[in-house]
Amino acid sequence: QAKLGGKNNARVFEPDMDAARRFRRALELDLGSALTNGEFEVFFQPLVDARRIAIVGFEALLRWRHPVRGLVSPAVFIPVAEEIGLIGEIGAWVLGAACAQAARWPRELTVAVNLSPAQFRSRDLVGTVKDALLRSHLRPTRLELEITESVLLSDSDGSLAALHDLRALGIRIAMDDFGTGYSSLSYLRRFPFDKIKIDQSFVREMSTRPDCIKIVQSIAALGASLGMTTTAEGVETAEQFAQLQAAGCDQVQGYHFGRPQPVGSMIFDLAPSLIEEPAAA
Ligand code: C2E
Ligand code: MG
Ligand code: MG
Ligand code: MG
């Protein structure tokens, strides 16, 4: 029997660390060829007007169909793509694919695309966006770009200039995951966002923590007074929806209204059962 000294304990964990490093290295290698192998796919999740209870747009959410691992979550591979400098190329592909799809939808619905901070640094973002619009013939007013406050953390002058240029084209800019960062309020002062997306953690905790309802109400009021649209993310139940309607949120998004869907299974109208739902809490 080996002694259980510090040295041996450390050795026990070494294979695991190697496995993690191997997984990471494999992801990096596979990401390098994922685009050319056609392994990426954009899913679309409905954005719903809370008063009319109607679909007003869709958010584009990237999926990676890995030939061996299956569907890999963007939460796993986007950070890796950012670190190894591939997000510019991947992001440009998402913009192109999302705009091309939206141009073929039956109604003039909005398409929302997520942007990484690295996309503001690595290449001509404004040119890439213009290119996607020109190729798809999508009107700029139908495109919404979602950013998190981290975009404004580093190199904020360049990022702010790009955001102003994009907005001047008629594109709307949304602040994603609002309320989770370090200084969300100060970012509202730095850029005239068109939309605030209230992070799903507030919605999730509304039933157990009454404070969360008050926070959501306050963000909705703040957004309204600043002339911004407010969207609540992660709405999973009819009860949450009723509370968010009462709180004054303009839009809702979540599994209650529809999961992110591949292009082939998209439905452009809500189920009648959702529309007939009583609005009162
Ligand atoms: P996000 O932009 O905040 O997107 C919302 C996430 O919440 C999505 O996760 C969506 O599938 C999930 N979601 C929607 N409704 C519900 C619900 O009712 N309950 C729960 N529990 N979750 C819900 P997803 O698709 O895994 O994406 C995760 C994150 O990855 C996104 O967060 C976004 O930050 C990033 N991402 C996705 N696609 C792209 C992309 O094309 N480019 C970049 N840069 N980031 C992306
Ligand atoms: Mg988003
Ligand atoms: Mg979000
Ligand atoms: Mg997020």
UniProtKB/TrEMBL annotation:
Entry keyword annotation includes Transmembrane helix: yes
Domain EAL: 24-274
Transmembrane as UniProt keyword: yes
Keywords: Membrane, Transmembrane, Transmembrane helix
GO MF term set: catalytic activity
UniProt protein name: EAL domain-containing protein
Organism: Lichenibacterium minor
Region of the whole protein represented: 509 to 789 of 789
